[in-house]
Amino acid sequence: MINKTIILSFFILFLFSANAQISQGGLPYSFLKQISSIDVPVVTTDDLDWKTIEQENRYDEEVNNPPKMAHLFEVNYNLNNSGIWTQLQNGDRLWRLKIQTKDAKAVYLHYKDFYLPNESNLFVYSADRKQVIGAFTSYNNHKSGYFATELIHSDAVIIEYYEPAKKIGEGSITIERIGHAYRMVYNKKKQRDFGDSEYCQVNINC
Questions:
Q1: pLDDT-based confidence at residue 174 (cuts at 50, 70, 90)
Q2: Are 202 and 20 in contact (CB under 8 A)?
Q3: What does the alpha-carbon distance between residue 92 and residue 112 come to, in Å, rounded to a whole number?
Q4: Structure pTM?
């Protein structure tokens, strides 16, 4: 299972090397309109099994495998079964979900069935709003439906999807893996420039 996860991570990186992390900048709609996140539903990951992780890391060292920096949790969170929709006065709407990963040094996300219609956008940011990545748009769509977002240096992140009224129901976002980075998280920036992404940050073996 571990080897399959590693292979899949490299596959995703190869697949999206051209456009996966290119973003359009800007700020989430909730920031601009000062919409509170207090009512955003929270999902939590399990605690890490440190005994197993330590055994795996020792084995990797013995056989010269690339060191792992994170544990991947298999999940299935999408626009229909998780989060909350906020209906806006002009007919547009906003979907948000908060993910809590206890004691993580950073969090990153893998997606499937990923499709953003024109004029919609997606942001991911730390719950304290100190780090924001996005906007991701229809430019980031891929025929495979896979997508991945880089490290957020926090143990709690919020995913925010904005959908205009004329595109309601067209978007699709499914989070299939949550990466809990527990070591080798370096070069944290106090302020990341919009679009300043590092492709390797979505890889558990970066």
A1: very high
A2: yes
A3: 24
A4: 0.82
Distance, in Å, from the CA atom of 149 to the CA atom of 147, rounded to the nearest integer, reads 7
CA atoms within 13 A on the CB side of 100: 8
Partners of 148 in beta bridges: 110
Three-state DSSP state, 107:
strand
Q: What is the DSSP string of 120-165?
A: -EEEEEETTSS-EEEEE-GGG--TT--EEEEEESSSEEEEEEEE-G
Q: Six-digit token pair at 202?
A: 């979505």
What is the spatial distance between Cα 81 and Cα 30, in angstroms, rounded to a whole number?
21
> What integer best gives the mean pLDDT of the chain?
85
| CA proximity to 150, closest of 181, 172, 117, 129 | 181
Residue 180's CB is within 10 A of a number of other CB atoms, namely 23
